[in-house]
Amino acid sequence: MKKIGILTSGGDAPGMNAAIRAVVRKAIYHGMEVYGVRSGYQGLMEGAIEKMELGSVGDIIHRGGTILQSARSDEFKTEEGQEKAIEQLKKFGIDGLIVIGGDGSFRGAQKLTEKGYPCIGVPGTIDNDIYGTDFTIGFDTALNTIIEAIDKIRDTATSHERTYIIEVMGRDAGDLALWAGLADGAESIIIPEKPDEFHEVTERVIRGHERGKKHSIIVVAEGVGSGFEFGKKIEKETNLETRVSVLGYIQRGGSPTASDRVLASRLGAHAVDLLLQGISGKMVGIHHNQLVNHDISTILSRKHHIDEDMYQLSKELSI
Ligand code: ADP
């Protein structure tokens, strides 16, 4: 393999730039050429492809977002779209493609692999919702952004004796809410994996109030429903003043944490290693701090699960 391509697709995540840098530098280190594709699969179909040099990725390791831009493309989901993409890759003489993104992006990579085009996936999403890796690139940074926000909200919650509902990202996976809740000593965590445990939340708020607690912090993942709806329900059932904060897109941005930069560098480099060995159709990941890889088809057919022990612990610590 002499020439490889790289793109970022789907939702952006802090640390994607560190992964791009690792891919480019590692590939050049091994004597390969690297081509950057702009705006994900959309740019791939349009041939928005440029050669990258060592300097193309200078001064980006600490930046959030993705210098290659990301996009969503419905056209790429069609056979014609995928053929168009492969034509462009062939036109530029690119032998293999590294896709940094979430499970939607890996579905695209799987389609290209099935058509005989070698692809490797690198998990980049703040949600940590991908099977086959303990952590995804961006999760740690988003988590730290949430913690910073909750710490600030806690100050005002204490001053006014209020219950605060913090809505965080996570459509299908409660990892951000669970980790943030545990790290911030939240009274309750409401996550998509445990939608039926809402009654316990109000019970816990009332119990806390009765023993003189000045405030409650409740973290809810967006996938379970609107924070505002939960706020109304909790206020109605507890009779306590409740406020809601939806953290929104601030969770996606910012300079990646050291942990995300290191993870992104390791995963990006591992993706290049696999292509060098002639391996494709895999997603790289981390398990027990060791680099691993799995068939993309396996990743897509299995579901990521929260750590049940951690969920139980979060309850025990907020009795
Ligand atoms: P993420 O990668 O963050 O999960 P999306 O689900 O939006 O983000 O997927 C990103 C892009 O991947 C889509 O816009 C589309 O171009 C491509 N993609 C998603 N699903 C498929 C599919 N089933 N077949 C081909 N391409 C897909």
Structure keywords:
alpha/beta, Rossmann fold, 2 domains, 7-stranded mixed beta sheet, 4-stranded parallel beta sheet, 43% helix, 18% strand, binds adenosine-5'-diphosphate
Structural write-up:
By secondary structure, the protein is an alpha/beta fold. It has two domains: 3-138 and 256-301, Rossmann fold, CATH 3.40.50; 140-252, 3-Layer(aba) Sandwich (Rossmann fold), CATH 3.40.50. Helix content is 43%, strand content 18%. Strands 3-2-1-4-5-10-11 form a seven-stranded mixed sheet, sandwiched between helices. Strand 7, helix 7 (198-210) and strand 8 (216-221) form a beta-alpha-beta unit. It is elongated, with a radius of gyration of 21 Å. The chain starts with a strand and ends with a helix. The chain binds adenosine-5'-diphosphate.
